TrEMBL record:
Superkingdom per UniProt: Eukaryota
Subcellular location: Endomembrane system
Job description of the protein: Carrier protein involved in proton-driven auxin influx. Mediates the formation of auxin gradient from developing leaves (site of auxin biosynthesis) to tips by contributing to the loading of auxin in vascular tissues and facilitating acropetal (base to tip) auxin transport within inner tissues of the root apex, and basipetal (tip to base) auxin transport within outer tissues of the root apex. May be involved in lateral roots and nodules formation.
Cleaved signal peptide residues: none
Higher taxonomy: Eukaryota, Viridiplantae, Streptophyta, Embryophyta, Tracheophyta
Protein name as it appears in the record: Amino acid permease 7
Membrane disposition: Multi-pass membrane protein
InterPro entries linked to this entry: AA_transpt_TM (IPR013057)
Length: 364
């Protein structure tokens, strides 16, 4: 768990609740994103064959069901330590589609011979709508670094020497620099290329139509990345839940008993009935919620706004106060409290904007 006991048992439980709820939400977001990318591949080929004005529309629900079926199988991977190969594939795919998005945006700016857009951003029909969109954008930005929630779980898989925390600190710094670089490049060059018509997702919003095969490749990379990413964020939830039930019901055979299962030409493996049922129900629930609210930008904004302040700001600041014995009303205390309050306001307005966006998309 990301949160330690330095802030007291109650705050530790609250922090854990937010952390696992956020991981669950990331699973929902990944189902939505994957289905959108799968639809984009089909639409890209349709536009290439029938023209850009063709009515190429495809439903997302079948794609979500396909992704859910894959995750039901993948979720039976025993634990976090067993998904190293999946993480490597996901990382390679991430670099592939990030470079593609960056390259397409840069090429479009060169082809246009000008930078589109303005400092004021895209216009809206009313000032209120503009404000809602700005609030939602804050939520999207707050979602930018979800991997921070699993840093300690990843650290637990490392070998020493050197010390795990030193290795993780170096890896985190590299990850933040690379992630920020690609976020800024894709976001800035995307807006410079399309201005007020910039799609919410450069690879699925069809700012780009050609080369269609490159769009297909990039979206396929996103799909493969999210297959691994879903497990990266789900495995800690599985481990915590299964450990809690095992400790709560130590003599229950359904929860604790493992069976050897052997298929021809394959190595034998252990199965646990509770693990199969719980993990299957978990995947089904994330898929069902995604099918009901299949709104990419709004859902990302909601997740970011809900968890940005408590997980990225409040609890780390509180732990810092306790660990370093920071006294109240000192200069450092005042600065960090002010910073925490400002971030709380960002989370609130981001949450409001994202909820309004979901309501408008669902019922508007």
């Amino acid at each position: 768990m990301l949160c330690g006991d330095v802030s007291g048992k109650t705050q530790t439980c609250l922090c854990g609740m937010f952390q696992y709820l956020y991981m669950y939400g990331i699973g929902i977001a990944y189902v939505i994103t994957t289905s959108t990318c799968m639809s984009a591949i089909r639409r890209s080929n349709c536009y290439h064959e029938k023209g850009h004005a063709a009515p190429c529309k495809h439903k997302d629900t079948p794609n979500m069901l396909m992704f859910g079926a894959v995750q039901i199988v993948a979720s039976q991977i025993p634990d976090f330590h067993s998904i190293k190969w999946l993480s490597v594939i996901a990382a390679v795919m991430s670099f592939a589609y990030s470079f593609t998005g960056f390259g397409l945006g840069f090429a479009e700016v060169i082809e246009n011979g000008m930078i589109k857009g303005s400092i004021a951003g895209a216009p809206a029909s009313t000032r209120a709508k503009k404000l809602w969109l700005a609030f939602q954008a804050l939520g999207d930005i707050a979602y930018s670094y979800p991997y921070a929630l699993v840093l300690l779980e990843i650290q637990d898989t490392l070998k020493s020497p050197p010390p795990e925390n030193k290795t993780m600190k170096k890896a985190s710094m590299i990850a933040m620099i690379l992630t920020t670089f690609f976020y800024l490049c894709c976001g800035c060059f995307g807006y410079a290329a399309f201005g007020n018509n910039t799609p919410g997702n450069l690879l699925t919003g069809f700012g780009f139509y050609e080369p269609y095969w490159l769009i297909d490749f990039a979206n396929a990379c996103v799909v493969l990345h999210l297959v691994g990413g879903y497990q990266l964020f789900s495995q800690p939830v599985f481990e915590f839940s299964e450990r809690w039930f095992s400790e709560k019901f130590p003599s229950n055979g359904f929860v604790n008993k493992f069976y050897n299962f052997k298929l021809p030409l394959l190595p034998s493996f252990h199965i646990n009935l509770f693990r199969i049922c719980f993990r299957t129900a978990y995947v089904v629930s994330t898929t069902a919620v995604a099918a009901v609210f299949p709104y990419f930008n709004q859902v990302l904004g909601l997740l970011g706004a809900l968890n940005f302040w408590p997980l990225a700001i409040y609890f780390p600041v509180e732990m810092y106060f306790v660990q370093n014995k920071i006294e109240a009303w000192t200069r450092k205390w005042i600065v960090l409290r002010t910073f925490s309050l400002a971030c709380l306001l960002v989370s609130i307005v981001g949450l409001i904007g994202s909820i309004e966006g979901i309501i408008s998309a669902k019922f508007g």
